[in-house]
Amino acid sequence: MILSLMEQYSDQLDGIFQALADPTRRAVLGRLGKGPASISDLARPFDMALPSFMKHIHFLENSGLIQTRKEGRVRTCVIEKKRFAAVDAWLSEQRALWEGRTDRLEQFVTTTRTKEKSK
Amino acid sequence: MNPSSNPELDLTISRVIKAPRSVVWSAWTNPDSFEQWWIPAPAKCKVSEMDLRPGGAFVTQISEDGGDFMPHLSGCFLALDDLERIVFTNSLVGGWRPAEQPFMTAIITLQDHPLGTDYVAHVMHKNNADRNTHEELGFYDGWGTVVEQLAKLVERQS
To answer: I want to staple A64 with a disulfide (CB 3.0 to 4.6 A). Which of A83, A87, A104, B27 is the partner?
Structure first.
């Protein structure tokens, strides 16, 4: 399924995969997948000067994968879900949703049990 | 009864969960517990109805970033076998009334496993044309995982 999608959307995918080829940008997208965040929050986990970090943000913004907006002195980044539409095959999205639920259920029952045992 | 399978429209998630079947069952069927894992943080889940019997309503709401609770899942249980199986659909709502925007039936099965519980979610979908509907209902839910999976794919290829 992924192969046929890649042929179909190869141009769009080039930009996306280029953006994803870098670990910092992947981490930023992974974080933004959970919800919007400010530049300073996004930069915090990285041992990197702000100008270097901003290059990654600009790359992601220029490739259309994220949008940024400034409110007062804070610039907030948001993932651009539509840009990922080429990649997000419908069923794999469903699968991700159920995988996530199963991960959380597993974590919930195993951590609850650990707590009970330690009581 | 084994569900029919269509690889274009169905998905199956299997997982061995290191906890007894009764604990997994309780995490699924106790609304307070269910709310803890059904939707990824920081979004919050509220179970409005979880009437655990065939024809019983199954309704959840979602709040993103502390905002108002919005409709999330609105469905109906079809079968419940204690500690073994939960079947629900969003093709019907409580009391078997046909739903507005049906697209899936889910069969959750729990079996004993030497390490705990063999957990299987088999989910059958109507067709791909309901994509937009689905995006409204569940896109947020799986999004972080989609990105992670994509990243893994790229890492393998590079």
So the answer is: A83
Task: Check the CA dihedral B87-B60-B129-A8 and report its sign.
Answer: negative
Give me the domain span that covers residue B69. Answer: 10-157
Q: Enumerate residues 6+ apart whose C-beta is below 8 A from A118.
A: none
Cβ–Cβ contact B88 with A under 8 A: no
Per residue in A39-96, pLDDT (tens digit) is 999 999 988 999 999 999 998 998 888 899 998 889 999 988 766 654 556 677 778 8
* CA B65/CA B67 separation, integer angstroms: 6
Q: How far is B9 from chain A (nearest CA, A)?
A: 7
Taking the domains of chain A in order of start, what are their residue ranges? Answer: 2-88, 89-119
Closest chain A residue to B145 measured between Cα atoms? A96
How distant, in Å, are the alpha carbons of A81, B46, B48, B118 from that of B115?
A: 39, 31, 33, 9
Query: What CATH number was assigned to the domain covering residues A2-88?
Result: 1.10.10.10
User: What is the interface pTM, i.e. ipTM, of the complex?
Assistant: 0.76
CA B122 to CA B124: how far, in whole Å?
Answer: 7
Nearest to A94 among B18, B40, B123 (CB): B123
